[in-house]
Amino acid sequence: MHSLHSRLLLAASLVLAGFIGVTGLALEKAFRVSAEASMQERLQSYIYALLAAADEDEQGRMTLPRKLPEPRFSKPDSGLYAMIAGDDGLPLWQSGSYAGRTVNLIEKQSPGERAFRRLAQSETALYVISFGVAWADYADKEAFYTFAVAEGTAAFEEQIDSYRASLWGWLGGMAIVLLLVQGIILRWGLRPLRKVEADLQRIDQGEVDHLDGRYPRELTGLTSSLNQLIEHSKLVQTRYRNSLADLAHSLKTPLAVMQSTCEGEADEHTEAQEVVREQVERMDEIIEHQLQRAAVSGRATLTRSVPIFPLLERLVRSLDKVYREKAIKVSLDVAEDATFYGDEADLTEVLGNLLENAYKYGKGQVNVAVHCEPKTGAGHVVDIQVVDDGPGIDPAMIDAVLQRGKRMDETVPGHGIGLSIVQEIVAVYGGKLEIERSELGGALMRVRFDS
Q: The domain spanning residue 237 has which CATH number?
């Protein structure tokens, strides 16, 4: 569960499901208890009705009439049954509805006491109430009876089932509605976070350089800190580059003085002069190389997207002037949406070195192709190919030419650090530099940036 929205929705759904489940069970149990209490009171009222219908014989002993006040007592298998037992617990009377049954409903009770229970038997399940009665005859002699009235559970269970179906139907409908409302509320509540994410993606793609939206109070501290981090990163980068530029400027002047001094010394120091001159040139190359490395800013969320085609046009115009005598024909095949997410100086350094090598070693034709390939999720891959018709690069020499200071052709001017700089810049951006044989017979330089 990598989504905050999914986590909150799942947690809230589980809590809601648990709450509704417990509520449903509690309501169902409460309804059953209430229904059983109502059943108990109704059965007790039947006992009072039997007592009210009771009569006396010549000695004052209790008798019951043939016709009872509740017609169901007289109808066989009506579901309502009655039985009276004496003090010894043996049945003395039973209602006509109980005819043919053998189960004893009596649970002996003392006068004024009652017991309510559920009785399961082979024929059917019954709710039974037993009530103790003391009856005095004309001689003031008390006789003890136990009245028992029972009713089948079929109607009771049907009532419970109907209530259960209605209860869970309503609770299920409420749960669905609450889940939908809950999802909408969560989506609305988390919208500021999605806005922050979208704004960060815009920064990552170079469309803007800071967070400038309106955010809730809870996110203001976060967005302010991010903006401060972005500004601080810009200042550090600028300060670092300026410091390196100042260092280069400071070192180049003493080196130039040393070189000119060395060249102007007497002939007896020729060997020492040559050693110093070589070391001065070496130091100059190291400074140039380290400055180029420091200029690589790498991909960051602080830069805007750089259109590739205008940059290529400027480089081609400049190189056409430098290599005017070679009359190089350049073909540009650049996709309209070809953009580079990074520092423009880095892209200029990469394209400039690749094009300069193509101009330098090519005979008359240079082809440049730039295409963008979408990748899974966000972003795209920028594929840059620079092809020339020169002598090409022997596969066995590829590793060597990528090393700093290594050159394939010593007759061509240069320091031999261009391709190593390109490789370092491409590596900073997580890309890849490939060198192959082109269809024109020369070198094919291919760079892939994962934007």
A: 1.10.287
Paired strand residues for 306? 340
Q: What is the pLDDT along the chain (451 residues), one digit of tens a residue?
A: 577 778 888 888 899 889 999 999 999 999 999 999 999 999 999 999 888 888 887 777 888 777 787 888 888 888 899 989 888 888 888 888 888 777 788 888 888 899 999 888 656 788 999 999 998 877 778 889 899 999 988 888 899 999 999 999 999 999 999 989 988 888 888 888 888 888 887 777 767 777 877 888 888 888 888 888 888 777 777 777 767 766 766 676 677 767 666 665 545 456 666 666 666 776 776 666 556 655 555 555 445 678 899 999 988 988 888 888 888 899 999 988 788 887 787 888 889 889 988 898 888 899 999 998 876 655 678 899 999 988 888 888 877 777 754 555 544 444 446 788 888 888 888 888 888 888 888 889 999 987 6
Can you spell out the DSSP letters for 129-198? EEEEEEEE-TTS-EEEEEEEEEEESHHHHHHHHHHHHHHHHHHHHHHHHHHHHHHHHHHHHTHHHHHHHH
Residue 20, CA distances (Å) to 159, 179, 181 in order: 22, 12, 16
Q: What is the CA radius of gyration of the chain?
A: 50
pTM, full prediction: 0.49
Per the structure, the complete domain to which residue 366 belongs is given by: 303-450
List Cβ neighbours of 429 (8 Å cut-off, separation of 6 or more): 298, 299, 342, 346, 449, 450
Burial class from Cβ neighbours inside 10 Å (0-12, 13-18, 19+) for residue 442 reads buried
| 222 and 114 assigned to the same domain | no
CA 447 to each of CA 356, 429, 434, 436: distance values in angstroms, whole numbers, following the listed order: 15, 11, 6, 11
- Using alpha carbons, select from 193, 209, 375 the residue that is nearest to residue 301: 209
Same domain, 11 and 152: yes
